[in-house]
Design a protein that fits this description.
By secondary structure, this protein is α+β, with helices and mostly antiparallel strands. The protein has three helices and nine strands. The chain has two domains: 2-155, Lipocalin (Beta Barrel), CATH 2.40.128; 156-199. The chain has an eight-stranded antiparallel barrel.
Length: 199
């Protein structure tokens, strides 16, 4: 489940989470094509991937300190591989774009090909992009941190409360360890001064 993923439970593979990494991606920056890493993360509802939130995470290869995040809502018909995405606009005064994607099987078990069959941005229609399905936990840290608030938001109230309690217990333990280390360091410092004074 999503909760197990957030808690880093062993071998947790959620039925309501799908993560893809694109094989090759270039994006326009100041009119030039730049190589980038791009991921899609689909966060489902009620332990299913029929609908929910989709995130697009992008990072330039030569700029590891920054990343782009796009979000929207998706509907997925797993019987025919039809993915409909309603992308949110970065401008609150504009309407987002609608995209329809057909998911084809790829060359191996974990590979897929995404074909854009319809898009409000016409030039994108017909594009095919190769992706690989990966375990969410293999995402880089920056990507998991960016996804975390969206996963939290999608959890039922009871699971959200449980996670909050787990986080509080973890922080309390970390504080206790730090205080113990501080007290031990203080004792060692005083003991060292006593030895120096004796000498």
């Amino acid at each position: 489940t999503l909760l197990a993923i957030l808690l880093n439970a062993g071998n947790a593979l959620a039925d309501d989470l799908l993560t893809m990494v694109f094989d090759k991606t270039t994006i326009k920056v100041d009119g030039k094509d730049e190589n980038a890493r791009m991921y899609y993360v689909l966060i489902g509802k009620n332990n299913k991937l029929e609908d929910g939130t989709i995130l697009q995470l992008t990072q330039l290869m030569d700029d590891p300190d920054h990343y782009g995040l796009g979000s929207g809502q998706f509907q997925l018909d797993q019987s025919n591989g039809e993915l409909t995405i309603f992308w949110e606009s970065n401008d609150p005064n504009e309407v987002g774009q609608e995209e329809h994607v057909r998911i084809h099987d790829g060359s191996s078990k974990n590979r897929r090909v995404l074909e854009t069959t319809s898009h409000d941005d016409e030039p994108q229609v017909g594009q095919k992009q190769a992706v690989r399905l990966i375990d969410y936990r293999s995402l880089p840290n920056w990507a998991r941190e960016a996804c975390r608030p969206y996963i939290l938001e999608s959890l039922p109230p009871a699971e959200r409360l449980r996670l909050a309690r787990e986080d509080a217990a973890r922080r309390e333990l970390e504080l206790e360890i730090w205080m113990r280390y501080y007290r031990d360091s203080e004792r060692w410092y005083k003991h060292s001064l006593e030895i120096l004074n004796v000498q």
